[in-house]
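Q: For a teaching handout, I want to show students what a protein-ligand complex looks like in token form. Below are the inputs, and the small molecule is D-tryptophan. Please produce the holo structure.
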Amino acid sequence: APNISVANVQAHLNQFQSIANANGGNRAHGRPGYLASINWVKGKLDAAGYTTRVQSFTSNGATGYNLIADYPGGDANNVVMLGGHLDSVSAGPGINDNGTGSASILEVALQVKATGFQPTKHLRFGWWGAEELGLVGSTYYVNSLSSTEKSRIKAYLNFDMTGSPNPGYFVYSSSGQPTGSAALTQRLQAGFTALGVSTELTNVGGRSDHAAFARAGIPTGGTFTGAEGTKTSAQASKWGGTAGQAFDRCYHRSCDTTSNVNATALDRNADVIASTLWATAA
Ligand code: DTR
Ligand code: ZN
Ligand code: ZN
Ligand code: ZN
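A: Here is the structure, written as tokens, with D-tryptophan included.
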């Protein structure tokens, strides 16, 4: 798997920041900054030869959008999917939450093309709308699938906050998740181990977009660098950063800008996304 350039991921974050700046300061569902984000990501993927489609839905009286991108080729009966939500809260630009996850899977998708990776399985990427309203876009997507289409998806990997300024290195626990999730958790953990980074399991329950996939029986996994929770002294001695301080003090606030991202955490998570995808889709 390629080492993902953090500079490339940061360039995408700068774009999300510019989009928010030009659209009232946010990228929230129902606001112009969200559709501008969708259109920008779509343009990058179209240029890289992906087959893209925008799925629209209504939530809270406003139109929402999911972006689905399929990499041509691979076994259509064996789909590996990566996703993250593209919407921010209305309070700010949502660069860590969840520009980081969105930008990281975008860069991984671009590197699939750039490196000429020919995976055995079929790759699909999703950028979800209205996650902040209650996982609305990802739920709409999963509900739109026939049972046959659901059975073709063998793994869903979710990335929601991967660059928190006072980062923890969490991998979603597979307990309570569909059979097959443990293998994904192990792959993600191995990716961090290869970088010399220790991880902790976190029980994410229904707190992000993997939940709808898990309910459909699809194996899930993901990584997370922390939100409003407080880093303990044990975690600070393991990971660095500041004990007794939130992993992300700007979570759901207007200060969640490009300066609210830890580049090392962003890079490490992007590299693990790539190594896990290459191993899972080979
Ligand atoms: N609910 C997500 C952020 C979030 C909070 N806890 C977790 C755990 C696992 C993934 C994401 C999250 C949001 O605000 O978008
Ligand atoms: Zn890297
Ligand atoms: Zn959020
Ligand atoms: Zn989020």
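A: Two things your students might notice: The radius of gyration is 17 Å. The beta strands are 51-59, 62-70, 75-85, 121-128, 153-159, 170-172, 200-202, 220-224.
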